[in-house]
TrEMBL record:
Coiled coil: none annotated. Gene3D superfamilies: Medium-chain alcohol dehydrogenases, catalytic domain, NAD(P)-binding Rossmann-like Domain. Residues 22-328 form the Enoyl reductase (ER) domain. NCBIfam families: oxido_YhdH. InterPro entries: Acrylyl-CoA_reductase_AcuI, ADH-like_C, ADH-like_N, ER, GroES-like_sf, NAD(P)-bd_dom_sf, Zn-ADH-like_protein. This is YhdH/YhfP family quinone oxidoreductase.
């Protein structure tokens, strides 16, 4: 099936030692990465990994040129899979899109059929992109925390890096589930925003310059952490008996200078969250995002931008100049 030429935001290799050069190119479908399913992209999310790729940091993208965007929503144009008929609304995230193969920052995307998830009816294309990899990570964190016994009756849940995309959605989901949420943020101006998402309290990060105690007063029943490093170690020391923490970020550093004492004396659990999970789990959690885990305040935690604003918006993410989730509209 032929399609017209279309626009894509592609990263091109820069001069040796320099960041890649991002620009809008006019392409045909034949210039996309290989795949048996063609999707007309409606929206694509802006993620920290996309921002790192644009800046040439972290060795995120190795082969150029590359269309960025690690998640997208849209409608099927055609597919080798009869379970994906033309017009089917879908979401795609992970599997290396936007990194190892072309991603969502284009009017069309071509991927493998077994990477494509039909959208539950209750989730719009816009909200699917707002959720995207971030919303899935938030849902996956809570899924495994509840699997380990976390319930609203056990006490407060701390969400660190609270203005980030994953954290903002996590606050919304937790509050809808009946949890008492404490949001931790280094942005004092974000207090009203975080309370509007459902946070019962907003606190600043602790002073981590001095030596840290291996065990502190027990406060948190659960922790959803996007920061890592010393902040996660500090929070673990304040988990209550049988408390559980889910960790998926390293904005505060990849090292974890923690003590084993909370694990031994309080039986706390630290869960590593890898959002590139198998498709059966993805299907189950997207159904939860349409029902039990459905956020109620996505309009408050998200904004829609136009493709022309994409490079500047990605750059702002690295300067801590963004809040919540941004999605770019392609159709």
């Amino acid at each position: 099936m032929s399609t017209p030429e279309f626009q894509a935001y592609r990263l091109h290799a820069g001069p040796a030692g320099d960041a890649p050069q991002g620009r809008f190119d006019t392409l045909t479908v034949d210039q996309l990465s290989a795949g048996d399913t063609l999707i007309k992209v409606a929206y694509a999310g802006l993620n920290y990994k996309d921002a790192l790729a644009q800046a040439g940091r972290g060795n995120v993208v190795r082969d150029y040129p590359r269309i960025g965007g690690i998640d997208l929503s849209g409608t099927v144009v055609h597919s080798a899979d009869p379970a994906l008929p033309p017009g089917q609304e879908v979401v795609v995230h992970g599997f290396g899109i936007g990194v190892d193969c072309d991603g969502g920052y284009a009017e069309y995307a071509r991927v493998r059929h077994d990477w494509v998830l039909p959208l539950p009816r209750a989730i719009s294309l816009r909200n699917a992109a707002v959720l995207g990899a971030a919303g899935y990570t938030a849902a996956l964190s809570l899924h495994w925390m509840e699997h380990c016994g976390l319930t609203p009756e056990q006490g407060e849940v701390l969400v660190t890096g609270a203005t980030g995309g994953v954290a903002s959605i996590a606050i919304d989901i937790l509050s809808q589930r009946g949890y008492t949420v404490c949001a931790m943020s280094g942005k004092p101006e974000a207090g009203d925003y975080l309370r509007s998402l459902g946070a019962a309290e907003v606190i600043a990060p602790p002073d981590l310059s001095g030596p840290q105690k291996p065990l502190m007063s027990a406060r948190w029943a659960g922790i959803i952490d996007s920061v890592g490093g010393k902040l996660l170690a500090h929070a673990l020391a304040s988990l209550r008996t049988d408390g559980v923490a889910a960790a998926f970020g390293n904005a505060g550093g990849a090292d974890l200078p923690a003590s084993v004492i909370p694990f031994i004396l309080r039986g706390v659990k630290l869960l590593g969250i890898n959002a590139n999970s198998p498709m059966p789990l993805r299907r189950a959690l997207w159904q939860k995002l349409a029902a039990d885990y459905r956020p109620a305040r996505l309009d408050l935690s998200s904004r829609v931008i136009e493709p022309r604003d994409l490079p500047q918006a990605l750059a702002a993410m690295l300067e801590r100049g963004s809040t919540g989730r941004s999605v770019v509209r392609f159709s």
